[in-house]
Specification:
The chain is an alpha/beta fold. It is built from 12 helices and 8 strands. Helix 1 links the parallel strand 1 (7-11) and strand 2 (41-43). The radius of gyration is 18 Å and the shape is globular.
């Protein structure tokens, strides 16, 4: 089992053809681009991958592609969470035959469990596998915020290695960082908070922007992990327009527009999401050109 999570990981988007079928060829090319760009780990089947709109056989094919290209060179953490404890455990059991490094498990959405419910959910999930578990707290999407005391209690479990924190509540995340046990990592779930969190002890980011700019994001985290925060500050300010503009419409609408501009995939999403407005496309296009990001 992987012992420590650090660096820049990409929450991979899922490319679709105009007929809404998955474009597996584009997916493979995107994964290869990530690896060649030096990204530190990959996260398929997260929210950014429009996973709620994918079928079971499609998910398995996606995992197969990622693993066939990474070949163990970088870690792979598969999104497997849901708002049902039993369904989450069943999903993990279905993926156990794959040689993935672990699972990204989101807090149960919509049904709003208590902190006790969250602890029991993640504890049951962690006990269902020997592979690594990354907790994922994103209250803006789920409707529930996992508090620091719950996260820190879960951090004591043997295979819970990290939390992807996207609450945007700095005091909360700082508390988790301060009191985390040895070997437990906090990674940012928001690109624009990466530097500020890492300065205070976070170990990385699970990034949306790195779909568009994997080389830039892997370099950013390399600089941060070396402790060169003066240089990292300059990179942060340079990349901030990309961080901001990847969220001017619901994720992953803007990043799909950017990938389309780079000719990496169609600008197509599965309903209920739809492609970006012309205004969003223009903003993303200008952002990519200004940063001289290449295919």
């Amino acid at each position: 089992m992987i012992k420590e999570l650090k660096g820049a990981g990409t929450a991979l988007v899922t490319p679709f053809k105009k007929n809404l079928e998955i474009d597996y060829n584009s997916y493979r090319k995107s994964v290869i681009r990530q690896i060649k760009s030096g990204i530190h780990f990959l996260v398929p089947l997260g929210t950014t991958g429009e996973t709620p709109c994918l079928e079971a056989d499609e998910k398995r094919k996606i995992i197969e592609i990622v693993l066939s290209e990474t070949k163990g060179k970088i870690p792979v953490f598969v999104g497997a969470g849901s708002n049902s404890t039993s369904h989450t455990i069943q999903t993990i059991k279905e993926y156990e035959s794959f040689r993935v490094d672990g699972y990204l498990i989101v807090t149960p959405y919509y049904n709003k469990p208590t902190q006790t419910g969250l602890y029991n959910h993640f504890k049951a999930v962690s006990e269902s596998t020997d592979k690594a578990i990354i907790l994922y707290n994103v209250p803006g999407r789920t409707g529930v915020n996992m508090l620091p005391e719950t996260t820190l209690k879960l951090a004591e479990l043997k295979n819970v290695i990290a939390v992807k924190e996207a609450s945007g509540i700095y005091s909360q995340i700082s508390e988790i960082i301060k009191y985390s046990p040895k070997g437990f990592s906090v990674v940012s779930g928001n690109d624009d908070e990466t530097l500020s969190l890492c300065v205070t002890g976070a170990k990385g980011v699970i990034s949306v922007a790195s779909n568009i700019a994997p080389k830039e994001m892997s370099n950013f985290l390399n600089v941060i992990l070396k402790g060169d925060f003066k240089k990292a500050k300059g990179i942060h300010h340079r990349l901030m327009p990309l961080f901001k503009n990847c969220f001017i419409e619901s994720n992953p609408i803007p990043v799909k527009a950017g990938m389309n501009y780079l000719r990496l995939m169609e600008n197509t999403l599965r309903p209920p999401l739809y492609k970006s407005t012309d205004k969003t496309f223009g903003i993303i296009k200008k952002t990519i050109k200004d940063l001289s990001i290449k295919k």
